[in-house]
């Protein structure tokens, strides 16, 4: 009986290892670290930065609000498409008509589209940040740099306390 249990444990271990290796070869990304629960937004929650230190004028606030609203409108269809793509992945995963290879192929294509959408969203965010910084005076820019450094320190501290590894570089599979 003990030999049978040991044999079953070995077979189970090998099958899991083989399945993981096949998924990695098929272009499936590795599982997220446990601290993220599979979702980056499940990580440490940080309070928003205190921009009151910048002492923005009413004119600056108005321009920044207008720009932020315009950026949100640009991003709205991107986020809607990303949500549709995530739903599409769930449908593919639950499909009984597709083989595992077909599922991997289709999911990989959808994830590539999601990566492109994320790039578009990040470009909009970067443009928004450039506009934001362009509206600041030199004194405000120095204060803003200090705020960003403080936020980075707080985030690093929160990651360490939660046991999350601080990402040093992007994994090679996401650099396409």
What attributes characterize this protein structure?
single chain, 176 residues, 4 helices, mainly alpha
Topology:
Elements: H1 2-25, H2 58-94, H3 100-134, H4 138-162
Helix pairs in contact: 2-3
Determine the structural class based on helices, strands and strand pairing.
Answer: mainly alpha
SSE pattern: HHHH
Number of strands: 0
Query: Quaternary arrangement of the chains shown?
Result: single chain
| Strand-residue proportion | under 5%
| Fraction in helix | 55-70%
* Major sheet size, sense and barrel closure: none
Terminal residue distance: 50 Å
Folded structure, characterized:
The protein is mainly α and 176 residues long. The protein has a domain at 56-160. 69% of the residues lie in helices and 0% in strands. The chain is built from four helices and no strands. Helix 2 packs antiparallel against helix 3 (100-134). The protein is elongated and about 65 Å long. It starts with a helix and ends in a 14-residue tail after the last helix. The model is unreliable at 36-41 and 172-176 (pLDDT under 50).
């Amino acid at each position: 009986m003990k030999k049978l249990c040991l044999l079953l444990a070995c077979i189970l271990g090998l099958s899991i290892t083989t399945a993981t290796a096949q998924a990695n070869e098929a272009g499936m990304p590795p599982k997220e670290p446990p601290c993220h629960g599979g979702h980056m937004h499940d990580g440490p929650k940080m309070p928003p930065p205190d921009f009151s230190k910048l002492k923005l004028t009413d004119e600056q606030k108005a321009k920044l609000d207008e720009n932020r609203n315009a950026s949100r409108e640009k991003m709205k269809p991107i986020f809607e498409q990303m949500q549709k793509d995530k739903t599409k992945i769930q449908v593919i995963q639950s499909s009984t008509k597709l083989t595992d290879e077909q599922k991997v192929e289709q999911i990989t294509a959808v994830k590539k589209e999601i990566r492109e959408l994320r790039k578009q969203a990040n470009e909009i965010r970067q443009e928004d940040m450039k506009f934001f910084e362009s509206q600041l005076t030199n004194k405000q820019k120095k204060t803003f740099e200090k705020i960003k450094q403080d936020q980075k320190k707080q985030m690093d501290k929160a990651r360490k306390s939660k046991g999350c590894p601080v990402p040093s570089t992007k994994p090679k599979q996401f650099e396409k």
